[in-house]
Specification:
alpha+beta; Creatine Amidinohydrolase; 4-stranded antiparallel sheet; 15 strands; globular
């Protein structure tokens, strides 16, 4: 979501039953992305992937969260190469070496799930593969800090420190993670950059989506002519991974899962799966 300022946050804590309903929504997100991972290869279009995603979500009792959200016209966001997020699926055929992020949301049983994963087609630039590895690892660095008593800034700092301070990458500033639940985007905002000890205090029952968006080059981005797609200003590749989690006392409870996605990625000979 886009970074914006508010006068007062309204945090919606979830009970155990609500958390399990959210888990169902998020697991359907993961299964949907896994189905698309099986299909990714040169010659396939991102619009074909989007159509399959929409049908799969509906066949399994869900509704695509992104479709018609503030006018967004597709079931998924599919961002290729220099597109960071919010990419429009289209009739462009995927090519060897492409980097593809699939961001998917599902509304089911009254709650949203949200997750994203970046894939690389064989022949991808080794530097882009390293970017993907670091971005994925930065997500888990942030999740490690997402526990009750810490603050949003602790999560944000952990991501930035790993992805930017220790590597020559640019963490996007204009877009952030977010709370999630009955609404796709709830409070609090979850930036991928910041200072430790700042921001909202994390409480048991808070549900948030953590989603580092990291550029191979500089952090600056711009919005494409379609009004949605965010691209790197220097034209270099970007990576994006996202988990929806619930804050608990000792460590985060991951509501989304990469297990089915990673299995499909590994089984697809057209994808590079050994970078993690």
């Amino acid at each position: 979501m886009s970074l914006f300022k508010k006068y007062k946050e309204v945090i919606q804590l979830k009970n155990a039953a609500e958390i399990e309903l959210m888990r169902q929504s998020n697991l359907l997100v993961g299964d949907t992305i896994a189905v698309l991972a099986e299909m990714i290869k040169p010659g396939v279009t991102t619009l074909q992937l989007d159509i399959i995603a929409g049908q799969y979500i509906r066949d399994h009792g869900g509704i695509p969260s992104f479709l018609n959200y503030h006018g967004f016209p597709y079931n998924t966001c599919i961002s290729v190469n220099d597109a960071v997020v919010h990419g429009f699926p289209d009739n462009r055929a995927l090519q060897p070496g492409d980097i593809i992020t699939i961001d998917c949301g599902v509304f089911k049983n009254g709650f949203h799930g949200d997750s994203a994963y970046t894939f690389a087609i064989a022949e991808a630039d080794p530097e882009a593969l390293t970017l993907m590895k670091v971005t994925k690892e930065s997500l888990y660095k942030g999740i490690e800090k997402a526990r009750a008593g810490n603050r949003i800034g602790d999560v944000a700092f952990a991501i930035q420190d790993y992805a930017e301070r220790q590597h020559p990458y640019g963490v996007v500033r204009e877009l952030v993670g977010h709370g999630i639940g009955r609404q796709l985007h709830e409070d609090p905002q979850v930036p991928n950059f910041g200072k430790r000890g700042t921001g909202s205090k994390l409480q048991v029952g808070m549900t948030i989506a953590i989603e580092p968006m990291v550029n191979q080059g500089k952090k600056e981005v711009y919005t494409d002519e379609d009004g949605w797609t965010i691209r790197t200003k220097d034209g270099k590749a970007a990576a994006h991974y996202e988990h929806s989690i619930c804050i608990q006392k000792d460590k985060a409870d991951l509501l989304s899962s990469f297990s089915a996605i990673e299995a499909a990625e590994k089984a697809n000979s057209h994808l590079v799966s050994n970078y993690y």
